[in-house]
Amino acid sequence: MSPHIVRITTAGFVLAALLSTTVVGTTIVGLRRKAAVIITADSKANYRGRAGASEVCKILRTGQTYFAIAGLDHDVLRGTFFQQTIADAFQDIDPFATRIEKVERALKADVLREMIAVQQQDPETYEWIRKDSPNVLSVLLADFENGQPHLAARAFEFVPGSTPDVRVANCDFLTSPGFCYMGKSPEGIHNFGEILKLDPTDPIEATRKLVEKEIHDFPNDVGPPITTIVLDENGMRMIPPIGACPIDVSRTKKSD
């Protein structure tokens, strides 16, 4: 397991932090409860090179699998789009655990290819990607399947050298309550634990208060509006409702 994961237990939840690529600021959190899973994210866009929209929806969907990416999510110059890698990695009929395995395998291969190319072709961008965190990207995935909520996250760390490799850290809560954090602060999960202790009856609001705190603490990297989705037996609901979010990512090829 990567050393860049921290776990604590509070208020009946196991809290785990996968520290994302802090140079590309974002905060995304996932919380699995007994009968629901919650994803909350900020909406500030961060760019290297030509800037785009100042606000973006960071929650995506392929089929009934919802996911969010922190860190380097695409590289137009080299034709790398990690959201497409995720969408193409699995089939809807795959059990959630299988989807996670396939996504991990596909992202590991694409992160390795991308980082070797960036290191060789653009040393300045390579140093920029790695300057604040060893992780190139982190991804959080969730669904509600057969009456059960599922939550998982992966962080991908590029390891340079004569034989480059990618290390993967995990945060899995497929059957038990838990919390996965991908964000700017080394104290992120501790902050969430303190927020949750104040009012353990409203975990949705607790996730939003954590992102709110990071917007306050890191205004150059994390920003409003805050978006939350809840997956339960009634389907998906968004807080607040936003027409263009989550973003649907269509498959471009069939997975194995």
Structure description:
With 256 residues, this protein is of the alpha+beta class. It has one domain: Glutamine Phosphoribosylpyrophosphate, subunit 1, domain 1 (4-Layer Sandwich). 27% of the residues lie in helices and 34% in strands. The protein has helices at 82-89, 96-121, 123-130, 188-198, 203-217; strands at 5-10, 13-18, 28-32, 37-41, 59-62, 65-71, 74-75, 80-81, 135-145, 148-159, 165-173, 178-182, 227-232, 235-239, 247-248. The strands form 3 sheets. A 7-stranded mixed sheet has the order 1-2-12-3-4-13-14, covered by helices on one side. Strands 11-10-9-6-5-15 form a 6-stranded mixed sheet, with helices on one face. Strands 7-8 form a two-stranded antiparallel sheet. The longest helix is centred in the middle third of the chain and has 26 residues, at 96-121. The model is unreliable at 1-5 (pLDDT under 50).
For this structure, the CATH topology is: Glutamine Phosphoribosylpyrophosphate, subunit 1, domain 1
Structural class: alpha+beta
Mean pLDDT across the residues is 86
Give the CATH superfamily.
Aminohydrolase, N-terminal nucleophile (Ntn) domain
Give, in order, the helices and strands.
EEEEEEEEHHHEEEEHHEEE
State the name of the first-level CATH class: Alpha Beta
Inertia-based shape: globular
How far apart are the first and last residues' alpha carbons, in Å? 27 Å
